[in-house]
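Q: Could you predict the 3D structure of ATP-binding protein of ABC transporter system?
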Amino acid sequence: MTNTTAPATAPAQGIQTPGMQPQGIGVPAPQTAPTAAPYPDIAVQAIDLVKDYGEGDNAVHALRHVNVAFERGKFTAIMGPSGSGKSTLMHALSGLDTVTSGHVLFGGQDITQFNDKELTLLRRTNIGFVFQSFNLLPMFTAEQNILMPLTLAGKKPDTQWLQTLTTQLGIADRLQHRPSELSGGQQQRVAIARAFIAHPRVVFADEPTGALDTISSAEVMGMLRRFVKEMGQTVIMVTHDAAAASYADRALVFADGRIVADVANPTEEGMTELVMRQRQQATAVLGNTAVAD
Ligand SMILES: Nc1ncnc2c1ncn2[C@@H]1O[C@H](COP(=O)(O)OP(=O)(O)OP(=O)(O)O)[C@@H](O)[C@H]1O
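A: Sure. Here are the predicted C-alpha cells for ATP-binding protein of ABC transporter system:
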C-alpha cells in the first residue's frame, strides 16, 4: 500500500465567493491509499493531485495539488479559463491520463496504481463519456452506437434499459438511422444514451453543448439533469458555457491548475461573473509578466 501525503481532510478546495454558498464536502481523506470503498457517498476523489507537463524551467503545472471529492448522484460542472487545467483533471479522474503525483480514488480504489489493462476495464465498465464532437461511429446505426460499450465488453444488450433511455432522450424512433442522418442535437442524445447504457458509476462530459445551438443545448442539459435527479446518476462536466453549468448541482472554477471557487446551485449570471473575473485576473497576470520581461 502506498503512503500518501494527503491532508487529514480533503474538502472541496478554494476561495468561497461572497454571495455564493460554498459546498465543501469535507470528506476525511484516508492516510493511506485504500483499495476498498471507505466513503460510499463519494464517486471519485482527487487527493493532492499534481500534473506537470515537461520538466525544469519549461514545465507546465497543469494541476497544482488539487483536492476535491465528487459525490454520488450529483451533477458537477467544471469551468475556468482556457488552459486552467479542467481537461487535465477530467482525464486524470477517468484514468485517461497518468498524473505526476497524488491519487485518484474511483469508488475507493486508487486508480493511479492501475496498469493499462485495469484502466481499460475500469473505463469500459464504470465510466461513460460524452464529447463535444459526439464521437459516433459513422458506419453504424444509432442503436449500434448506443450498444457499442456492451458489444465491446461482450455483454448482451439490455433492451429494457435501451428503450427507457432512448424514450427519455426522444430518439426511440431514430434508432435505425446513421449519425449522418441525424441532427447535431439528436447525435448528442445518441452519445448520451451510449454513455449511460452500461450503468456506469460516473459519466464524464467534455463540452457536451459545444457544438449545439442554444435550444439543443438546453434540451441536452435538461436530459442530463433528469438522469442525475431521477436515476441517481453521477455526472462531471467540463464546460465554458455558464448556461450549461446552471443545470449542475455544483460548479467548480479552475484557474492556473487550482480550484479557486466551489459553488452550490450555480446560476448562469453568477458563473458568468465568476469566470469573467478569473479571465481578467489571468490576463492581468500575463500583462504584468510581459512588463516584467
Ligand atoms: N500534452 C500536453 N503537453 C504539454 N502541455 C500540455 C499538454 N496538455 C495540456 N497541456 C497544458 O496544460 C495546461 C492545462 O491544459 P488543459 O487542457 O487541462 O486546460 P483546459 O482548462 O482544459 O483548457 P481548454 O478550456 O482550452 O480546453 C495548459 O497550459 C496546457 O497548455
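Q: Anything worth pointing out?
A: Residues 53, 60, 62, 80, 82-88 surround adenosine-5'-triphosphate (CB under 6 Å).
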